[in-house]
Amino acid sequence: MKKKQDTLIVTAGRDPEANFGIVNPPVYHASTVLYPTLEAVKTRAQPVTYGRRGTPTTFALQDAIAELEGGYRSLLTPSGLAAVTTALLAHLKSGDHLLMTDSVYEPSRQFCDKVLTRYGIDVEYYDPRIGAGIAALIRPETKVIFTEAPGSVTFEVQDIPAIAAAAHGADALLMMDNTWASPLYFKPFEHGVDVSIQAVTKYLCGHSDVMMGAITTTEAAWNETLATHGALGVCTGPDDIYLVLRGIRTLSVRLERHMETGLKLARWLAARPEVTRVIHPALPDHPDHAIWKRDFTGASGLFSIELIPCSEAALAAFLDGLELFGMGYSWGGFESLIIPQYPAKIRTATKWNGTGQILRLHAGLEDADDLIADLEAGFERFHTA
């Protein structure tokens, strides 16, 4: 039977009959794997060949992610950034041209600028809101167009179907960082994506205790991705995989709460005099709200605000005394976070026009009214300073 999404979240990657009826896949700690015959060694015709290449624990999570995203197959990496870098290396070579969104996660930008360019790959950044206009930037040597929707920190929602049509018309691959929405709220392969990347560290894990990434591809993009993943020697530990398999089963109920709390905070912040704008794709006044509403089925708990111009002392008074919002990078766990961001420093294809401090918030699983009270007390300190 065709399963609905909430059922898939609970059942994907599980095979109790293969494990003595045990509901959860066993955690295999393995490096060496023995072969029964010389012929088996030569052909490697058994499913598990070496620990780095994966065990049944690995395969269970990879199968679950591929099924949730709607792709052909998935691979795991030690971090979200490792998923980005592995995917790019798999499909680019010297002389190729990469179109990279200007709103991309900053470490991905650093990899492009400091590694890919050293190996003769031409990296060109483009306006994330370019949509179908990206066709004008595509050259004969353009092999990959990289998208991230919404963009890190500034939350531009890219027109993925329009960019996919332009990419495929020029025989280029479309990659997407799908971490913000997760497979729950955006189905990349239904919108033309060839390679979908996630920081599993975030919502799939959900508990701030694992570093992991995932690459999911179409069948056509699979072989090059698999070969490069193997050649780079990237692999993930079985205990971390177990934690993600455990966390993924509650993805639906957790993400619904993150969305609900995030929207409540965003609407409350939009009415505050200290906030000049709230940057949340699910709010009707967001410039890309129509695209978000068309392509996404929900929102996560991550968004940004811009404060009125203020002194460093006022900003510190606001942030330093917060009790429930921790100042830390990453997001997607059960705890609420807030961190200053500086998008103007990294943009190259577009200009960031904000005049106030950008703060990125992650709405955790705490009571929303308690989170509002924490922010309200922070604004009182802000004015006092």
From TrEMBL:
The alphabetized UniProt keywords are:
Lyase, Pyridoxal phosphate
Catalytic reactions on record: L,L-cystathionine + H2O = L-homocysteine + pyruvate + NH4(+)
Q: Does the keyword Acyltransferase apply?
A: no
Tell me the cofactors it needs: pyridoxal 5'-phosphate
E.C. number(s) listed in UniProt? 4.4.1.8
Pfam family, any one: Cys_Met_Meta_PP
Q: Which GO terms describe its molecular function?
A: cysteine-S-conjugate beta-lyase activity; pyridoxal phosphate binding
Q: Which residues carry this modification: N6-(pyridoxal phosphate)lysine?
A: 202
The text of the family note is: Belongs to the trans-sulfuration enzymes family.
Please report the name of this protein according to its UniProt entry.
Cystathionine beta-lyase
